[in-house]
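Q: Could you fold this chain for me?
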Amino acid sequence: MTNIAGMRAVGLLLRRPPAPGERRPRPDDWGVVAVIAAAVVVETIVRSEVTRPALAAVVTAAGALALPWRRQHPLAVLLWTTGSGAVAAVVHLAASVPQVTPGSAVGLALAPYALYRWGSGGAAATGTAVLAASIGVSAAASGNGWSDVVGASVVVTLLALLAELNRQRVASRARELDRARMLEREHIARDLHDTVAHRLSAVAVRAQAGQVQAVQDPAYAVDALRVVEDEARRALTEMRDLVRMLRESGTPEQGPGIADVLLLAEDGPPPVRVSIDGGLGPLAPETATAVFRIAQEAVTNTRRHARGATAVTVRIGREADDVLLEVCDDGRPAPAPQGRPTHEMGFGLIGMAERATALGGTLEAGPVASGRAGGDHGWAVRARLPATTRGVR
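A: Sure. Below is the predicted structure, expressed as structure tokens.
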């Protein structure tokens, strides 16, 4: 089992894709090339112990010239730098002259770092084999044997660890940004749904009622059209406000509060009655907004889905440190569309539950006995939210 797990881990590493991000050469890359080239020229002139100084300068400068593309083509750059170094080592071996490389060649260590930082799993495996061969050839050319092999291996290992840590750090940061964007999209989607759906539901209900009553009572139809126009204008205004806030700050401002729940009361159909406990006390702005949005969505759902509802009741009270919200109707739930489960009928219940959970509260929704004759049942939405935002997460 251990061997199988190890083989799977190796397989995953080999299939790892290159790291994302900008890879094209940057202006500071050419600064690095200039520093390495200048340093190797000065060093080969000053340090008399550097063997074949002209060859050492050319090999180091040639390797440095490839470094600006190390992020874009990490394996190719590594092959170029190690290949040119291996050629110089073979020349020294053929001449039986111990190789002494300039210290400025350490700048070429950016190539193996780039391989492990940006390269794919397959490229890293190939590059590791090439590095191992290059270390062996260089150790033989220098005449120091195993001491150079151990030292170079330690350096490459440290570079690989540093590159991997940086790679994981950047990936973790990218995941955090993606999660923040996702949460922001959910927040905007909830606000958009709650703002527009409520108004459009009122428009639909009034338009339907107006069609039914148009022939018998033209005055009712005119009144219904007036309500439709008013609700449509409000929906457009709220949409413009939401878009404006997103353009200006990127995040919607603080929404409505408890006092706005009173605006949900109307004569219907069906009539909506709102009751707010006088001892509710001060609430956190986030809690007040959530209470309003949940109540608004619950009323909207009643208009859209409750058949034969004669009344909707919205009650807000307080119990210890929690705010209690209950929205009840006495209608019959509309049947789910064919082939679609009832719990997948829309995003309203999901949005309400998300608002409650985000504040550390709870939300329940389901059928209840309405008390009407004939055994009809209604629907209730009950939310318990903390008066303060101690549970926000």
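A (continued): Residues 337-345, 371-375 have pLDDT under 50 and may be disordered.
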